[in-house]
UniProtKB/TrEMBL annotation, chain B:
InterPro entries, alphabetized: tRNA-endonuc_su_Sen15, tRNA_endonuc-like_dom_sf, tRNA_intron_Endo_cat-like_sf
Keywords: tRNA processing
Lineage: Eukaryota, Metazoa, Chordata, Craniata, Vertebrata
Organism: Cyclopterus lumpus
GO MF: nucleic acid binding
PANTHER family in alphabetical order: TRNA-SPLICING ENDONUCLEASE SUBUNIT SEN15 (PTHR28582:SF1)
The tRNA-splicing endonuclease subunit Sen15 domain, residue ranges: 43-132
Pfam families tied to this protein: Sen15
Protein name according to UniProt: TSEN15 tRNA splicing endonuclease subunit
Composition skew (Basic residues), residue ranges: 143-152
Highest taxon in the source lineage: Eukaryota
Length: 284, 152
């Protein structure tokens, strides 16, 4: 079999400017380069929880840019307009299936209600008022026939947990070439200082993920996040950017509460990055 | 009787005792325009000398940043540290922090609130690994899950 070249190229799908990876090999390739990404998808068999998530993987803008610079990423095939027509057909089919299901379920639901009504009325049946009750029952059944609608929120929808032929990610082996640009140059929304810091820390062997939870730019791990806790919360800023002292105190206090050092990171002159560690002084 | 008069003396401190304090006057002589920063520096100076009993506390002007920095030793024979006192509502840049770090001494940033509360932050060049969580660690095993289940 044709073996994958060691410098594999991953196929990045753009979903409204979010760079996504769908293939398992691509996820593996990206992890082997020390990039972590973030899984977004729910697993069909364990929905309604976000402790374990599945594909697709969302890349940080810095990760996408790093891959692009290493010529290790390209626009995924089938991402272009060709796929659009197929997709529209699938959506159309899905809507028709839903409509059919709705009509069937409406009929069944009406029958269900009628038999429930019948059971309820005949169970409280007394000998003397038999005829009057029969007429009342008929009246109610007819009213039900006229006015009953199944609310669409009550529709039962079946979700397949197995592939069942749905294939948003063709596994056909496709030789990706890194000269297919993912997006225009000016579209990359990567702040210069963030990217420089990202590249420098990655170059030193740290693993980085997004630090939105901690009010910083990156969480910095001494190794793979599956094995280590983060040591640092990285806050990227330019050397001359002015920050409010209260914000410095807030982020430092948060860092000490979660046992991480806050790093102020700024790209300096001659390509070096300057790091200042912020720690709670412990002076009470 | 004498104690009462002593107490009376203390409570009769002149309202502008800060202005007459030798440390403050020394700072004033450095001729900085930023009087709020001078006031902050004075409060930190008092905290270091009187409360924390630091030794050899002195003030020095930083011409580039136009602020007063304090230097001192925590104990006799301890290394000299630099303290940058700033009013809490101020902003600062990473460059000015690097400037103070470049003096070569361990650095503390001190934020002075309007009610004179002082908060000290340690600033160090490079990546300082945080202290690991303190042990001893006990493997809870199944016990924790069992406890949670019982609650429901």
């Amino acid at each position: 079999m044709d073996g994958r070249p060691s410098s594999a190229v991953v196929g990045v799908s753009l979903c409204d400017s979010a760079p996504l990876l769908w293939r398992v090999e691509d996820l593996r390739t990206v992890r082997s380069q020390g990039l972590v990404g973030a899984l977004l998808g729910s697993l069909p068999r364990t929905p309604r929880q976000n402790v374990r998530l599945g594909r697709p993987m969302l890349l940080l803008p810095e990760e996408e840019r790093l891959l692009t610079e290493r010529h290790a990423a390209a626009a995924a095939p089938g991402d272009q307009d060709g796929g659009g027509v197929e997709l529209r057909l699938q959506v159309q089919q899905h809507r028709e299936d839903q409509q059919r299901s709705y009509e069937e379920q409406s009929v069944l639901a009406l029958e269900d209600r009628k038999s429930a009504l019948l059971r309820a009325m005949t169970s409280s049946h007394t000998e003397s008022g038999a005829r009057a009750e029969d007429e009342a029952l008929q009246g109610r059944l007819e009213a039900l026939d006229r006015s009953f609608t199944l609310p669409s929120s009550a529709l039962a929808v079946q979700l397949s947990t197995a592939r069942a032929g749905l294939s948003y990610c063709p596994e056909a082996r496709d030789f990706l070439r890194a000269d297919r640009p993912i997006r225009g140059q000016d579209e990359l929304s990567c702040h210069a200082s963030r990217y420089q810091v990202f590249r420098d820390l990655r170059g030193r062997g740290f693993y980085l993920t997004s630090a939105g939870k901690f009010g910083g730019d990156f969480l910095v791990y001494p190794g793979d996040p599956l094995r280590f806790h983060a040591h640092f919360i990285s806050v990227c800023l330019s050397l001359d950017e002015s920050v409010c002292l209260l914000d410095v105190l807030a982020v430092s206090r948060l860092g000490s509460n979660v046992k991480k050092t806050v790093l102020l990171c700024s790209p300096g002159t001659d390509g070096r990055v300057l790091y200042t560690s912020l720690q709670w002084s412990g002076m009470v | 009787m004498s104690e009462a008069s002593k107490r009376a003396d203390v409570s009769e401190k002149p309202p502008n005792w800060i202005l007459q304090h030798p440390a403050y006057q020394q700072m004033k002589s450095l001729e900085l325009e930023d009087s709020a920063q001078v006031h902050a520096a004075f409060l930190v100076h008092m905290d270091l000398t009187e409360v924390r009993q630091w030794k050899e506390v002195s003030c020095v002007k930083s011409p580039e940043l136009q602020v007063i920095l304090l230097e001192g030793r925590e104990k006799e024979g301890a290394p000299v540290q630099t303290v940058l006192p700033l009013p809490a509502h101020r902003s600062l840049s990473h460059r000015s922090i690097r400037h103070v770090l470049d003096r070569g001494f361990p650095m503390l940033l001190c934020a002075v609130a309007s009610d004179s509360t002082l908060v000290y932050q340690r600033m160090t060049d490079g990546l300082v690994t945080p202290d690991p969580p303190a042990g001893p660690f006990q493997d809870l095993g199944r016990r924790q899950h069992r406890k949670r289940r019982q609650k429901h």
